[in-house]
Every structure is written in structure tokens, then in C-alpha cells.
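Board notes, transcribed. Complex of a protein with FE2/S2 (inorganic) cluster.
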Amino acid sequence: MEEHEHEALPPAVPPVNRRDFLFRLGLALNTVAAAFVGIPVLGYVASSMFKGKAQQAWVALGNLDSFPTGETRLASYRNPFTTPWDGATADIPCWVRRKPDGGFQVFAINCAHLGCPVRWFPQSGLFMCPCHGGVYYEDGSRASGPPPRGLYQYEFRVRSGHLEVRGGETPNLSEPV
Ligand code: FES
């Protein structure tokens, strides 16, 4: 008898049956699908966690003389974080109220409900929203309708005879000012 006839045979590889194969294939496809769905979601969550303060910078709104005491006027500024192809969409309107005591309030034009532009009616001393009937008093506080709060306000300052606001990312529920 020859010696090689007694050598141990390698362990037999168990046969993969059709059911196991399909199970493993399904598992692999599910993993790939989960990665496609999960990675963007994780990216979104992480970006909101690590996002810093909204992009904002001081921009001039106009000469103080252009805002008479006791009046509310429409003004606009150029978004300081614009790109050349933004065009007119980078011109951001806002309402400027010069209070009777000479102080200011600068309101975002967007309704605090769903963002429609509000209009100022000096006859009634109210801001009104054309979309769902939201109404605000002259100081921006909510008067009636669906808005959950008053108008968003910008930070402002006076420099060298000019009114400036912290413009850029517009105020919203998560970043009120
Ligand atoms: S968007 Fe102004 S009331 Fe709805």
C-alpha cells in the first residue's frame, strides 16, 4: 500500500444550498440599501450638529434720514453671502420701523407662519399677510391668524449716520436673529 493513500483528505466544504445563497444575497443587498439611505441622513444630522452660527454680516440699509420718525418703510439690502449668479434673489427686503422715540425695529418681510411676504398698512397700523390672514401689530408682535409668533427681527446698529443690519441668512424658527 502506498503511503499517500493514508493522507488525510481536506475537510469537505459544505454545499451552499439555494436557500442560504438567497438569504446571504438578500442580506448583502439590504446592507447596500441601508448605506444608501443612511449615509445622507447621518450627514444631514451631523451637519446640523456641527453647523456654526448662521452666516451673517453687517450691511448698510440706508441713511438715517431715509427713515422718518414714526414711520415704517420698506428697505432692502444685498445679501453679503451672495454668488454672482444669484441676481435679484440676493436683494433682501425688510421693514424698518422708526419708533416715536427715534429707536428702530427691523423686521424680516417673511411671515412667521409659512414665509409669505407681509405688507404694512399705515392706515390701520398693522402688518398683514396675504396668504392665510396672519396679522401683526406695528411693533411686530402677533395680532391674529395662524403665525405662531411675531415677525422675526434683525439685529441692527447705527454707524456714521447709517442704519446697518446683520444680514445674510434670514431669521427663522431655529435662528430667530
Ligand atoms: S404665511 Fe402668513 S399667515 Fe400663513
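The chain has a mean pLDDT of 85. Helices lie at 18-50.
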